[in-house]
């Protein structure tokens, strides 16, 4: 059964094998991850700098460079703490040791079981949970530590309450919130009294700002019930 849980993490798959990328993409997308792809070192560097992914799956043998050099570049030249799993047909003990020395968090030999890869990703994510607080879905991204919301390269100019609303929905995908629940969750007691009509107005403005960049219906109204962040469209 498809896992509807929104992970909110962006994974960059760097592999020149189209079939391999497709299999990994299909499996991880079903788990709620956002997927980026690169088929060589040049695309890998460009995608990493542009999208700032939360996780890297990196083939060690690329057509224009060594994957280990990309790993070293991310970890030590950019001083990045992004989690990295190396994928390789070279799977000797010495190969694995060299990969870890280059800065990888884990090393998986090819061919691998896709379920094993998923478990390895889960394990690394648990161990590195504090490295990336960014949440992303269909191009919409929240960076909680910086209080920034982007749609791809564009920053959305949100009010304090619009940001709180979006963060609440983002962190509880497909969960229905009544207006009363929203009021009790995102507004402090010290703030002025907020009524349900105010919530509707905030959500209307939030939708309008998102709609400037995409027509995807992130926030769905359930008539007579409330709202939810939808991942089911």
Can you characterise this structure?
By secondary structure, the protein is an alpha/beta fold. It has 8 helices and 11 strands. It has helices spanning 18-30, 41-51, 67-77, 93-101, 114-127, 160-170, 179-186, 196-211, and strands spanning 10-14, 34-38, 55-59, 84-88, 106-109, 135-137, 140-143, 148-151, 154-155, 219-222, 226-229. A 5-stranded parallel β-sheet has the order 2-1-3-4-5, sandwiched between helices. A 4-stranded antiparallel β-sheet has the order 6-7-8-9, covered by helices on one side. Strands 10-11 form a two-stranded antiparallel ribbon. The radius of gyration is 20 Å and the shape is elongated. The two termini are 17 Å apart. Residues 1-6 have low confidence and may be disordered.
List keywords for this structure.
single chain, 233 residues, alpha/beta, 5-stranded parallel β-sheet, 4-stranded antiparallel β-sheet, 8 helices, 19% strand
Describe how the helices and strands are arranged.
Elements: E1 10-14, H1 18-30, E2 34-38, H2 41-51, E3 55-59, H3 67-77, E4 84-88, H4 93-101, E5 106-109, H5 114-127, E6 135-137, E7 140-143, E8 148-151, E9 154-155, H6 160-170, H7 179-186, H8 196-211, E10 219-222, E11 226-229
Parallel strand pairs: 1-2, 1-3, 3-4, 4-5
Antiparallel strand pairs: 6-7, 7-8, 8-9, 10-11
